Amino acid sequence: MHALKAQFLDFLRMRGISTQKAFFFALIAIVVGVMLFNSLQDSKPKPVATHVAIAATPEAPKLFIHVVGAVQHAGMYELNFNARVFDAVAAAGGFSSDADQASVNLARVLSDGEQIFVAKIGEAGAAAASGLSGGGGSTALINLNRASATELDALPGIGPAIASRLVDWRNANGGFKKKEDLMQVKGIGQKLFAQIKDLVTF
Which contacts (CB < 8 Å, 24+ apart) does range 98-101 have? Predict the structure, then answer.
């Protein structure tokens, strides 16, 4: 080791380089090496944080339904989109003990702003029988907006299928506004309309 150091010092003296200068050059070389190393490290690509925007799921619209008639708690109810008549009746506490459950189609999908009317058992039955019997006295008309499917079925030419469609159309369109609306229901043409138009009211 001493021999190597002596050879190195002899080399510096032959070159006319003092020990202090050699130390100075060595220090400069170290500093330059460190700077070069750091520069290479900084030039390496660094991972970039990415932010993925997550779209908020839009809230499903709500339905406002007015439930009246033979239910436990008639009133206005807010229901989920695609709710059915069954959900509206359930929100109102269910049928009352005297409800004619056949007066509404529980499976029908609701639309916003509807009024669901649940008739009572025999609510318009007596009126229907009186109106169709031909008995004396004034003729009692069937109210298209309140009669149950069973009561509508009592009209001439109206079977269970058309009676059910009448109730569905009434609920979907907010009720009958004029007698001519009957012809909007599938199965009721001019001839059948002429038979029943004087037996109904709205």
Answer: 98/70, 99/69, 99/70, 99/71, 100/70, 100/148, 100/150
pTM over 0.90: no
Domain enclosing residue 26, as ranges: 2-43
Please, which contacts does 105-108 make with residues 24 or more away whose CB atoms are closer than 8 Å?
105/164, 105/167, 105/168, 105/171, 108/84, 108/168, 108/171, 108/172
Q: Is residue 57 part of a domain?
A: no
Per-residue confidence in pLDDT tens, the chain, 202 aa: 556 556 655 665 666 656 666 666 666 667 666 676 766 666 666 665 666 666 666 677 888 998 988 999 999 999 998 899 899 999 999 999 999 888 888 888 887 888 888 888 876 554 445 444 444 444 468 888 888 888 888 888 888 888 889 999 999 988 888 889 999 998 898 888 988 888 888 7
Same domain for 104 and 11 = no
Please check whether residues 74 and 29 belong to one and the same domain.
no
* 120 lies in the same domain as 87: yes
76 in the same domain as 37: no
Q: Please tell me the total count of domains within the chain.
A: 2
